[in-house]
Amino acid sequence: QVQLVESGGGLVQPGGSLRLSCAASGSIASIYAMNWYRQAPGKQRELVARVMSGKNTYYEDSVKDRFIISKDNAKNTVYLQMNSLKPEDTAVYYCNAVLSPLQTGGYWGQGTQVTVSS
Description:
By secondary structure, this protein is mainly β. The protein has strands spanning 2-7, 10-12, 18-26, 33-39, 46-52, 57-59, 67-72, 77-82, 91-98, 107-108, 112-116. The strands form two sheets. Strands 2, 4, 5, 6, 9, 10 and 11 form a seven-stranded mixed beta sheet that branches. Strands 1-3-8-7 form a four-stranded antiparallel beta sheet, with no helix packed on it. Strand 9 and strand 10 form a beta hairpin. The radius of gyration is 13 Å and the shape is globular.
């Protein structure tokens, strides 16, 4: 079992920045990858960024060059630094952990709201 707790969401103006945090506990040595997903109203949940156990990363096209995913193994925490935020980034952001490359679903945090608006 893995438990995930997100923090850091809020309201920010367009062009601003936010940093989301995801603290993991439990069987963290078994984690293959940590992901950030987001879900906007009326839309499907989408993968935004991923960091794998070997530190390889993946970004969805719309956030490349604006978002940075990183992890601090000493703190068992994954971060999503979001820069140059746009109104279309508004969504609930979820932290997710999977234990293998083929695992679907995995473990989820409770979500944190990010609102980009003037």
